[in-house]
Amino acid sequence: MPSFITLQNLASQVVTTARKKSIAKMVGDSKNHVLVVDGLAGSAASVLFTALPVDRGPYLIIANDLDEAGYIYHDLCQLTSESNVLMFPSGYKRDIKYGQVDAPQEILRTEVLNRWHTDRNLRWVVSYPEALAEKVAPRKSIEHDTITLEVGNEVDLTSVAIKLRELGFREIDYVYEPGQFSVRGSILDVYSFSNEYPYRIDFFGDEIDSVRTFNVETQLSLERLKSVSIINNTSSQAVDAGVSLLDYVGGDVMLVVRDISWLKQRIEAIGKETLSHSAVEAQECDHDAMLKVVDVPQFMASLEAMRRLEFYYGESMARGDVKLSLHCTPQGIFHKNFDLISESFTHFIESGYTIYILSDSEKQIQRLKVIFDDRHDDIVFTPVDKTLHEGFVDDDRKMCVFTDHQIFDRFHKYNLRSERAR
Asked: What gap in Å lies between CA 414 and CA 388, rounded to an integer?
């Protein structure tokens, strides 16, 4: 059985020193307003994003839709750490015009607003047009309405409870959803919109003794924290004083855009929509939903003013101030046909390519090895300890980065933190 290598090690072989230098030079030159990178088949785009310079703050990656954004988010979590990447989804189920608020996704949106200007570990935020079409509360409002509590600080528990009520939190016996808090003796439980789990804050007199997240169902502690930021739902502030996320993050942020034309078309289309008849008739919906749509001309002006990197899965005729071309092709479609798999793999090996097979399961790698041995196929491959959404062939590096779920024709689904919160 061949020994596994890490996904990070594989990524370093794809993103060579030369490629890193090229990307750093492109991004570092402020004269380059529009950067173009093409030839990024499969998950090669996600791998390339790990090479973006880390000293520029978070990058806003804009995919074409929720699924594409979800897969990029999954890939980046696999390649680095979940703490380095956030998802910025729509705050609504289905389209915004139906007015069906989705609280778990509001948590993810609020976490982005809370961490963007304060968390140095945050490297990427992934979004899509429907999410960007919704306004967010202005930065000053977020900062004013945020309660920060830190272990060791002296704070009056009664004063904190009063502040929570002023911010719109509801006091109940046991918290079970965002926007609630409870006080039991010296313990404050509060479910902020800035985290998927509620916080349990233990006071010793006026001193904060400990801060933990906990599971609502079991009441068991999950993680100890040094400090927390408590924010209620800010979506109501987006009606009158709201701004687009582009204006919230500031003009110095670099956008990483899948399709700039599609982004503009979707924003313009959503800006022309009205609240649906079914939403108007529904008793439980956000009747102010369409008032939270961004000012389209202002959004377009902000979009054009910001530097952007456009990425393409194939060869592109797009023009930019500078362009980098990779030569990647998608992983083949095999439908579990091992005659076809063996023929394809053998051809790659004879052509000097190295084959890497990515999997979250050691048993799957062992299964593949047994199949090749039983067939007497002389197939040598290197297993990788995690998987990405889609495999690819890097012709420049002569590398085949294949996923086991594509080989065995299994559906691969991303998992957002909003699903855990749900």
From this structure: 10
